[in-house]
Each structure stands twice: as C-alpha cells, then as structure tokens.
Amino acid sequence: MGGPLPLGDPAPVDGRLPGDLVVDADADFGVYLHVPFCRVRCGYCDFNTYTASELRGARQDDFADTLAAEVRLAGTVMDAAGGRRAASTVFFGGGTPTLLPPGDLARMLDAVREEFGIAEGAEVTVEANPDTVDDAVAGTLAAAGVTRLSIGMQSARPHVLAALDRTHDPANVSTAVSAARRAGLDVSVDLIYGAPGESLDDWRASLEAATALEPDHVSAYALIVEDGTKLARQIRSGVVAMPDDDLQADMYELADDLLAAAGYDWYEVSNWSRGVDHRSRHNLAYWRGTDWWGFGPGAHSHVAGLRWWNVKHPAAYAQRLAAEESPAAARERPDETARRLESVLLRSRIREGLAVSEILGEGRKAVASLIADGLIEGADAVRGRIVLTRRGRLLADAVVRALTA
Fold first, then answer.
1. 3-state SS, residue 204
2. d(C-alpha 106, C-alpha 203), whole Å
3. In the chain, where are the structural domains located?
4. How far is it, in rounded angstroms, from Cα 285 to Cα 85?
5. Which residues form a coiled coil (predicted)?
C-alpha cells in the first residue's frame, strides 16, 4: 500500500486551483491513470497498490466509472483555471492495469478523450503483466487508441522472479510481446537488477533474453529497498542480504554495454530506446517538469508549479467522488529554490541534460571538478550543457549534490 502521503496544505473540496495560478494553454499536458490493483504484493514494492483482500469497501469492477468521474471533475476545474488542453501523453500505471478488462481501460481512455481530447500523434502507454496479455487484450487496447505496451519482464531467471515475488511465467513475456506486435503496438520491457541471489551471469541472461525480443525500449532499474516493504523486513531480520552496491554497478555497466551493442541508446539513467522516436515521452515530461494530471487513488499531479495528491485507499477515493468532491488530499506550491533544486535533480538524469546557466553559486564552481572526475561530459559542458558520463550516471546523486551546493 506504499508509504504515507507527503504533508501539504489542505486541498479544497471542489478541487479548484488557486486563482493566481498562470496556466500555459500551449504547454504539453500529460495524463496519468493509476490502477491500484495487483494479484499479489511483490516484496520490494512500495507503490500504492492493493490485492483483493486489502480493498475493503472498494470494488474493482466499479473502478473505471469512478475514475471517469474524477476526469469529469478535472475538466470543470481546468475550465475555471484557463481552459482544457488535449493530452499529449497518457500513461496507465499501477499496480497492474491489465488486471482490469481491456474494455474498462478503453472506457477510462474515452473519458480522457471526451473531457480533454487526445492530441494527434499522442503516446498512450499501458503497463502490463506478461500473464495478462493475449491477442484479444492487445487488439482491444490498440482499437481504443493505446499505442504502447510496457511489459513487466523483470528477469528471465525463475529464481530471481521468485526472490522478487513475481508470479508470471517467463515464457509469457515472449507471448505478450508477440501479441502487442500483431496489434501494431510499440513495446517496452521493464527489468530489475540486484535481487537477492541474482548473479552477474543471471543478469546477463535476462538482458540477452530481453534484447532477443527486439523491443523498442528497455527500462532497467536497480532494486531499491524501501522502508515498510517485505524485502526491508527480510533484510533487517537477516533472512536476505542487502543489495551489493558494487555488484549493482557492475550490472548497470553490463546493461549499458549489451544494450548499446544491440542498438539501444541511453536517454535517461535507467532507460534505453531504439532511437529518439521510441523514447517514453510521458516519462520525459516528468523529468522535464511539464504539466500532468494524475487520476486514481494516491495519484500525484503537477500544473503550473502547483502539486497535489489524492487520497490513497480506493474506498476513500470512491467515497469522495460519489459525494461529488475532489479526491485531492493535500497540495503544495514549492518556492523558487525548491523548484530549481528539483529541476537539477530530474533534468540531469536525461541525455539532453540541463543548461550550465541554470547552475548557481558554488554549484557552478563544481562543474570543472566534475569534468575532471569524469562525472560529466567535458565537450557538452563547453557547449553549455550538463550531461552525465556513464560513471556520472552511477553517481548521479553525488553529481546533484555538487551542482546544488
């Protein structure tokens, strides 16, 4: 069920935005749809997700209609704030969106289309468990306007999947990719490295299996131990060992080498694609700090510098909307210093980097030493951009600390 929501100012019951908020009607606008359902809870997961036994007062088969009600409320809120914008990207995340019938996902997308519009050429992504995708599911999603399927492969090794509490059949990854291809969808596969008991050879096998599928995009994330998870409890009690930082660094370098050899270019610390056209435009919008509205329990939103987040539990979320109230729990408006820090934190992660001119004070003085230490690209810095080297990607947090000192 994830960690606690952040603190913030109370959000108004009707969801209205502050009257002095200046919304750029021409800026890109993303939509995130959070589907919080999972068959089982993975031991490492800290997302806002719920198994059937945890729903208590919420019905999975009512969810599409409940979320559509939030979309309609958002339309009226945006009208009062300067007008609605067509979505340039839409992302169904979770949880496991494909636990819902594909027709439910289609109705949720139709609600976005009816209230906001979907821009021509928009990227529309659905995250999927490999066990839940066949030709019928992929075809229905494609007919609804989905353009991209992000498949949770995680590993090709059964013992690694077991360590992660993943229950899907590894063979179904290929089945899901083939179904998506036949439906005309772009395909991304998601991998996790550093699980308990995973060797470098295990990780190599997973990378080779992933590239053999010839997806358009690959995400590879280091396993992170989040407080409150089953994995954190197992480590604290000594049942399993803490992920080894040096092994994870070796795994990252192996991923970068093998993916580059297979024709994938890194464009964000944990993401590679076959050319610019297959990058995740939705996630790039997050890293660039553009506007998005997050729908669903616990979803976060950002519009014109204002942030807010919804109540977490699906039952509380449904109750608010049944009463024609906003599900927003709280909101905040970060000051200039906080926004600048976040911009450096996020934009330094992507291949395009950020302008040297955005770095102030002692951070600007640190650029030369970061080049000398091999953490940022010297040639790009001369051209006025901060771009991480591969070593810099491994030490991205340290780079950010130096740039924001």
1. helix
2. 35
3. 9-288, 335-405
4. 15
5. none
What is the helix (H) or strand (E) element at residue 68, kind and residue range? Answer: helix 63-80
Note whether 146 and 108 are within 8 A (CB).
no
User: What is the per-residue pLDDT across 147-182, written as a single tens digit (0 to 9) for each?
Assistant: 999 999 999 999 999 999 898 999 999 999 999 999
One fold for 9-288 and 335-405: no
**CATH code that applies to domain 335-405:** 1.10.10
The reported pTM is 0.95
User: Apex CA 102: angle with CA 180 and CA 43, to 5°?
Assistant: 80
Contact 242, 232 (CB under 8 A): no
pLDDT tens column, 323-366: 999 999 999 999 988 998 999 999 999 999 999 998 988 899 99
Q: How far apart, in whole angstroms, are the C-alpha atoms of residue 282 and residue 128? A: 16
- CA 12 vs. chain centroid, Å, equals 27
Residue 84, token pair as written in the block: 């609605």
DSSP 124: E
Radius of gyration of the chain (CA): 21
- DSSP, collapsed to helix, strand or coil, labels residue 60 as helix
Sign of CA dihedral 241, 49, 329, 19: positive
Q: Is 34 helix (H, G, I), strand (E, B) or coil?
A: strand
φ/ψ of residue 192, rounded to 5: -130, 135
| Residue whose entry in the numeric block shows the structure tokens 């987040």 | 309
Where the chain has pLDDT below 70, the residues are: 1-4
Q: 9-288 has which CATH code?
A: 3.20.20.70
Write the burial class of residue 370 (CB in 10 Å: 0-12 exposed, 13-18 middle, 19+ buried).
buried
For strand 291-295 and strand 29-35, is the pairing parallel, antiparallel, or unpaired? Answer: parallel
The residue assigned the tokens 């989905």 is 146
CA gap 95, 84 in Å, rounded: 28
